[in-house]
Amino acid sequence: MSPSPEEIFEAAGVRGFLHARRLGTAESVGVDADTLVVMASVVKVPLVLEFARQVAAGQLDPADRVRATAADRLGGSGTAGFADDAEYSLRDAALLALSVSDNTAADLLFDRVGVENVRSLLAELGLSRTSIIGAPRDLLRTIIDDTSAGLPLRALDPARTSATTPREMTSLLSAIWRDPGPGAQVREWMSAQVSWHRLTAGFPPEVAVAAKTGTMPGIRNEIGIATYPDGSAYAVAVFTVGGAETLRRPDIDRAIGDAARAAVEALRS
Fold it and tell me: Which superkingdom (predicted)?
């Protein structure tokens, strides 16, 4: 018998929180699916959905340009780690935010989209337990302030930072999946994610996965949609806590994919 998601999390030495649902139905499975968890870069999914909605409504021109300067660069992947200034369109900022988790691109997109508008989107979708404290730069400020004061990091506490639940994230993914307009664009950008070591690693090559990771010390997440060759699709949200000694833990990354696969196979059976 294949191991359960709970057994997979235990073997990896982490606490796991998971929800999976067969899209278009009421069928779902979960592990502590209503527990509040830290979003980390998963926050970029509702951000980009709101951007795509504003573009569709004619409120934003996706070709408008933004410039990432030294003052904007937080360090990390994409333009966030560039040595020199860079300029790109809003739609390329959305692609960078989802494909390589570019924090600077996300900051510039938040500036145009508006944090309050992303919060309004969450409320409209009924995601009452999902909260956003601000853009990536706002999260970094809490880390700097807390480190300077010798305090526990708010960024690692779901009660004091951008947070959600696995069940609410599969609800968000469901809204994205059934939307033929902005949602379809978000799925396309999520499909371009370069990180294949979590959800994607858990599924066979013939299963298409569109996903977004989130990572902080001791926190590893991913949400996504897995579509099988028979056309059935599954929204999965996996969040883990543990393994804080290093950011590089391929065993935990793989456990996220294996737990997701186990949950989906339980639904398929």
Answer: Bacteria
Q: Note the pTM of the prediction, 2 decimals.
A: 0.96
Tokens standing for residue 77? 């992947």
Q: The domain containing residue 185 runs over which residues? A: 5-268
Tokens representing 142 are 């809490």
Structurally, the chain folds into a number of domains equal to 1
Q: How many helices (H) and strands (E) does the chain have?
A: 9, 9
Decide if 169 contacts 223 (C-beta within 8 A).
Answer: yes
Whole-number percent of the chain with pLDDT over 90? 94
Query: Any bridge partners for residue 78, and if so which?
Result: none
Could you give the CA distance from residue 219 to residue 233 in angstroms, rounded to a whole number? 26
Taking residue 172's Cβ as centre, other Cβ atoms within 10 Å add up to 24
Give the ranges where 125-249 is alpha helix by DSSP (H).
136-149, 166-177, 182-191
Using CB atoms within 10 Å of the CB of residue 76, give its burial: 0 to 12 exposed, 13 to 18 middle, 19+ buried.
middle
Q: CATH no. for residue 160?
A: 3.40.710.10
Separation of alpha carbons 172 and 149, rounded Å: 36
Residues in Cβ contact with 87 at an 8 Å cutoff, skipping those fewer than 6 apart:
65, 66, 67, 68
> pLDDT for 37-54, tens place per residue?
999 999 999 999 999 999
Token match 């409320």: residue? 123
